[in-house]
Specification:
alpha+beta; Pnp Oxidase, Chain A; seven-stranded antiparallel beta sheet; 7 strands; elongated
């Protein structure tokens, strides 16, 4: 991934934080006939390995798991907040007109060694852990044990587990760090005026990373 230095994010806790907040990953692996791409929720286990381990599952009917089984590397892409940025939000645009549109975003690429897991105990542990993580905060959290055991076993027979040992993490936070303070303030004000969740999340990143760059 092309990452200008000013947009690079290397702090592992920040990268893992985005991955946990946006667990639906775009999973890419090279197959015999070209790139194979699927969208798979992946759980980040940050305490294991140097960069963490990703765990997930997919339908046994999905041919991707066979490509993963024979692959040396796969890439999981986690997309965070993003937003179109119009130059009309920049005060500097109204001075000299020298501004163009852009797109702000935060993204993580996790490169790693994949393996396929068909062990029933592993699958049950994974499903329980992933469900507990996602149900946390619900008024009435659903648990795997809430469903009949024979039904869960039947459902598990139709999936395979995926585990990816991360060997490299790349993070890119392109959030207006390259603009002067007044332009960043204009972006934040306009995003707040929009008011939707995605815009507010981006506004928070612009403020956070603008303050960090100002301290350097």
């Amino acid at each position: 991934m092309y990452i200008p230095k000013q947009f690079e994010e290397t702090r592992q806790e920040v990268l893992h934080g985005l991955m946990k907040a946006h667990p639906l990953a775009t999973l890419v692996v090279a197959g015999e006939s070209g790139l194979v791409v699927n969208h798979i929720p992946l759980q980040v286990c940050g305490s294991e390995g140097e960069f963490g381990i990703l765990r997930g599952h997919m339908a046994r009917a999905n041919p991707m798991w066979r490509q993963l089984a024979g692959a040396a590397e796969a890439v999981a892409i986690f997309q965070g907040p993003d937003s179109y940025i119009t130059p009309s939000w920049y005060p500097s645009k109204h001075v000299d007109g020298k501004a163009v549109p852009t797109w702000n975003y935060a993204v993580v690429h996790a490169h790693g060694r994949p393996r396929v897991v068909e062990d029933a105990a592993w699958l049950l542990n994974h499903l329980t852990a992933m469900t507990d993580e996602q149900e946390n905060g619900e008024a009435l959290p659903w648990k795997v044990a809430d469903a009949p055991r024979d039904f869960i076993e039947q459902m598990m027979s139709a999936i395979v587990g995926i585990e990816i040992s991360i060997v490299r993490l790349e993070g890119k936070w392109k959030v207006s760090q390259n603009r002067p303070a007044q332009d960043r303030e204009g972006v934040v004000a306009a995003l707040h005026e929009r008011g939707d969740d995605r815009s507010l999340a981006m506004a928070e990143l612009v403020v956070q990373y603008g303050s960090a760059s100002a301290k350097r």
